[in-house]
Amino acid sequence: MTAFNRIESKLSPDTAISDEIVLAGDGWMKELEPGQVLRIVDLEGNQAADTLFFDADNPEDHYSAVATIAGQGNIYLTTGSVLRAESGKELLKIVADTCGRHDTVGGSCSAQSNTVRYAHEKLQMHNCRDTFMLQLAKRDGGYTKRDLAPNVNFFMNVPVTPDGGLRFADGVSAPGCYVELESICRTTVLISNCPQLNNPCNAYNPTPIRVLIWNP
Amino acid sequence: MTSLWSKTIGAGDKWSGIIGKGKLLRFTALAPNANLSLMLFNANDLTERYNMPDTLKAQYTAHLTRGNVLMSDNGRVLASIVEDELGWHDTITGFTTREATDAKYGPTRYQEKRNEWLRSGYENFAVELVRNGLGVRDMGPVVNLFTKVFCDDEGRMIYDAAHCKEGAAVTLRTDMDVLLVLSNTPNPLNPSPEYPAAAVQLDITAAPGFDPATDYCFHFRSENRRAFENTAEYDLLSGR
Ligand SMILES: [Zn+2]
To answer: How far, in Å, CA of B36 to CA of B25, rounded?
Structure first.
């Protein structure tokens, strides 16, 4: 049986300095200072929060899914996972997690990958990479498509089997499950609350998430 | 078939170059335990590059072998694996950094070792990316040819040290004009305390004409067919 590592937080939403709802299909981009804690809440369950990170002081150094999983020798993210940039720099650490497992090899959905995975006529559908690019477009030219690397899919379960297969399993999250990350350096967080309508993981019904920030 | 061009990429070496559509790239491990990391870009639009998640999701796999195609972030086929004697190539473990290389093999510097100093994947790729007008923001997952890393039920990653034998070969076919960037640096999960010494030979020949009716990779999955159709549309519109 596969282990899930569920650790609760001691932080209360009453003391958060920021508390926002990100609706299904919407984006969110913000900087975290060192020591600040970010909580992402899966309000209705089995929603995917596609999230990217950048070293805010050197945005060319983005989150690296493969450096993160190779660094910890485990393909799943949970409490204790250190999220690394391509250079190996430590960006954030997961400090609480009531879901127990998160994916970082599945990447985000895009118009183009939808044509490959589902059908050519899916090109027009709303998708995470469009959301990412719309957020990047608001940052006066600082970021381009080249900055979009494989992301974290919080609340998604993409099991890798010992024989090298990849499955899209039913969600392991439930209404109210959350993940909490403590920023190690100044970090830029970019979230796309996934609008994917082709994947049964969310019962074809994308739902809102809640994002809170605490000071150290 | 006689090779158009051959090159031996020694342990620690790097190389990059543009390779046109319709070539066969045969990579041969000249010693056991090789690991050749590669990045791929559309040579005519360097913002389009190999996308590991799209490649794995579309083909329902966490490893690469014959039949698999290497997809770009624009849903097209950059290259396909047309022959494979190993059955498993890694794309989830990335490359080494300077810090990790020093920590594992001991610090080495040019000042003491001259050209025997030990190269890291990050530095090798940084040099070749900058040389081609790109930069560290273009870093991303690589394909680690010859390496097998599998995961147990708990997600722990296990490096298979018996996987790559001397002489083992894999052949990629370019399905677009690509910029190929190579780094022959150790796999980050290779537990050996010795810096691996396996050189890799690359032989390039002309590929037989692409025939969708009979092509193994085209018919491997319906997702692959749609990615090849996207590539054909790009060729049609761009006149390539
Ligand atoms: Zn999505």
So the answer is: 13
Task: Tell me the per-residue pLDDT of A10-36, one tens digit each, with 9 for 90 and over.
Answer: 999 999 999 999 999 999 999 999 999
Question: Rounded to two decimals, what is the model's pTM?
Answer: 0.97
Distance from CA of B3 to the nearest CA of A (A): 33
Contact call for residues A212 and A9 (beta carbons, < 8 A): no
Pairing between β-strand B149-151 and β-strand B45-49 as defined by DSSP bridges:
unpaired
Question: Which residues on A lie below 8 Å from B99 (Cβ)?
Answer: 88
Beta-carbon contacts of A14 under 8 Å, excluding residues fewer than 6 positions away, are: none
Q: Rounded to an integer, what distance in angstroms lies between the CA atom of residue A189 and that of residue A50?
A: 11
3-state secondary structure of B115: helix
Contacts of A74 in chain B (CB under 8 A): 151, 154-157
| Pairwise CA distance, residues B213 & B219, whole Å | 8
Rounded-to-integer distance, Cα A65 and Cα A143, Å: 19
DSSP state of B89: B
How much is the ipTM here? Answer: 0.96
Q: Does B106 touch chain A (CB under 8 A)?
A: no
Pairing mode, if any, of strands B178-183 and B14-19?
A: antiparallel
Give the distance (Å) from ligand 1 centre to CA of residue A6. 25
In B76-132 the beta strands, taken as DSSP E runs, fall at 77-84
Distance A47 CA to ligand 1 centre (A): 10
* Chain position carrying tokens 């003391």: A15
Could you report the per-residue pLDDT of A146-175, keeping only the tens digit for each? 999 999 999 998 899 999 999 877 778 999
